[in-house]
Specification:
Elements: H1 3-15, H2 28-34, H3 43-46, E1 53-59, H4 66-80, E2 84-90, H5 101-112, E3 119-121, E4 129-134, H6 140-145, E5 149-156, H7 168-176, E6 182-185, H8 188-198, E7 202-204, E8 225-229, H9 239-252, E9 257-261, E10 274-277, H10 281-290, E11 293-295, H11 305-311, E12 316-319, H12 322-328, E13 335-337, H13 341-353, H14 355-370, H15 374-390
Parallel strand pairs: 1-2, 1-4, 2-3, 4-5, 5-6, 6-7, 8-9, 8-11, 9-10, 11-12, 12-13
């Protein structure tokens, strides 16, 4: 081969794009081929034990994940109730592949707060648990395959098939609810969906609020600052709808200050705005304390954000979706809007134009949020875990 041809070949090799990685949970084939690993027969006898050994399998994470923040908060609550918890990372995306286990554990604690139990990258050190808990559809195959568990449960924070279009992920998320795991769902609405559509055994808990952070701060509240929860990487937060609504609002009232938060990257909008990014909780609570109206759009299960806003006395506009009506009431503390940018802008304007309505929504929101406590959420989750043990949970079906 001539030197010229060798040089051309080297250039072509360098220009070739890297291979596309197609990811799927590693244990899925094993479950589909061989079925679930049998459970031990100790479930009913462990159901009332004072101290449970709990293994929670978590998916890949990144800064700002509300789902992982909820997991970490519930783990701390369960640990305070005397249970031994461990976290096991199912990194099917390979997001943490270049990290050491120590680095991954440090990042988890940095992003979501420390827990007492260990975080393991993978399952080499797995020795069993009273209850092994899936925390997302990606983790269900591993939960079904790991040995030495007396029961299996599934912490369900949202209806995950709705995260995807027509896809393998949509089908696998749907599949995950039919594997016999006791579902512990993050609202009564979500529990009803899981029970009615999939026939899964289910209990519910209410998302809590950290009242040491999110509370009325007694600072003067502005009358011209609108906040939009704009976590664009989370499609179910309907950020395009929110941007259109604020564009309409800017046309109607150009003197308003519009601020976006929840997304690490800048967001292009047709109106001037302040981009706050991913904000730490203390600063976020301070922002909630001074803002006039918060806009959070929930197409599936409610996120943590609207209740945290309410706890700070901030009036909130959200969608009149089934989940929000079920969770907060049609005439509750939220100003509900149709899925329409004009309708969302109208809802914001109703609050801007009526100080008494804002005050009423604020007072009702503070009262509702006062009942949403993380210690109560941990107690509800514990009740679900004990129900899974008492039932002698079925071993799963692939």
């Amino acid at each position: 081969m001539s030197a010229l041809r060798r040089a051309v070949r080297r250039l072509l090799v360098r220009a070739s794009p890297p291979p596309l990685t197609v990811s799927a949970p590693r244990s899925l084939l094993d479950v589909l081929r061989d079925g679930a690993t049998p459970l031990t027969d100790e479930g009913p006898s462990r159901a009332q034990a004072d101290r449970l050994r709990l293994g929670l399998v978590i998916p890949s994470f990144r800064r700002g994940s509300g789902g992982h923040a909820t997991i970490a908060t519930l783990v701390r609550g369960l640990e305070r109730r005397g249970h031994a918890c461990s976290l096991w990372l199912e990194d099917h995306e390979g997001r943490h592949a270049t990290e050491t286990e120590t680095t991954t554990a440090r990042l988890f604690a940095e992003f979501f707060g420390p827990v007492a139990g260990p975080l393991h990258a993978g399952f080499k050190e797995w020795t069993g648990a009273d209850v092994i808990v899936a925390t997302g559809w990606q983790t269900v195959p591993s939960v079904l395959r790991l040995p030495g568990a007396a029961a299996r449960a599934y912490l369900v924070q949202d209806h995950e098939p709705e995260f995807y279009g027509t896809s393998a992920e949509h089908e696998w998320a749907t599949w995950s609810y039919g594997q016999g795991l006791h579902a512990i769902a993050a609202s009564a609405w979500l529990a009803q969906v899981i029970h009615d559509r999939y026939g899964a055994p289910v209990s519910a808990f209410d998302l809590g609020v950290d009242h040491s952070i999110y509370r009325p701060l007694g600072v003067p509240r502005r009358d011209d600052l609108i906040l939009l929860y704009a976590r664009a990487v989370t499609a179910r937060r309907a950020v395009p709808l929110g941007v259109l609504a604020l564009a309409e609002l800017h046309l109607r009232r150009p003197g308003l200050e519009l601020a976006l938060f929840g997304e690490a990257r800048p967001i292009a909008t047709p109106f001037p705005h302040r981009m706050l990014g991913v904000v730490d909780p203390a600063r976020l609570a301070a922002t909630y304390g001074e803002a006039t109206v918060g806009v959070v759009l929930s197409m599936t299960n409610p996120s943590l954000v609207p209740t945290e806003m309410l706890a700070c006395g901030l009036p909130v506009v959200d969608l009149a979706s089934d989940s929000m009506i079920s969770s907060f009431g049609r005439n509750g503390p939220l100003e509900l809007a149709p899925f329409d940018p004009m309708g969302v802008a109208d809802a914001v304007e109703r609050l801007l134009d009526d100080p008494q309505l804002r005050a009423t929504r604020s007072a009702h929101g503070i009262a509702l949020a006062a009942e949403r406590r993380w210690d109560r959420a941990a107690e509800q989750v514990e009740t679900g875990l004990r129900a899974a043990l008492a039932a002698g949970e079925v071993s799963g079906r692939a």
